[in-house]
Amino acid sequence: MRETAGRAFVWGTYVVAIAVVVQFLLAGLGIFANSYFFFCHAVVNAPIIALLPLVLVLVGWLGGVPVRLRWLMAAIFGLTVLQSLLLVPTHMDSPGALRYISGLHVVNALFIFWVTLQLLDRTRAWAQKPA
Description:
The chain is mostly helical.
């Protein structure tokens, strides 16, 4: 079971990375093509990016995945929660400069992408080590 969980963590990492790229695509399509894609961006794909890493932290624990990789996976969950919190001023229709905080939503998205790349690189290196 430990070996299967380890492999599931590796494959799950790739699924999370794909979901992050799709999230960027959905945001772009929501801006440039059809606003329906924003629904997919916010309601469909965002929960995948938030909840799958939580499941994979547990799977990684069962699979003996190094703690640092599990923390990187957990960081994606935390940063996704922060993504939602950064939009609170906009959703509350806050006036003035307070609303500018929501602009950090895009910066945080880039940080999520960077953490995902780090996670992919380190997971790949871990998976290729001889047992």
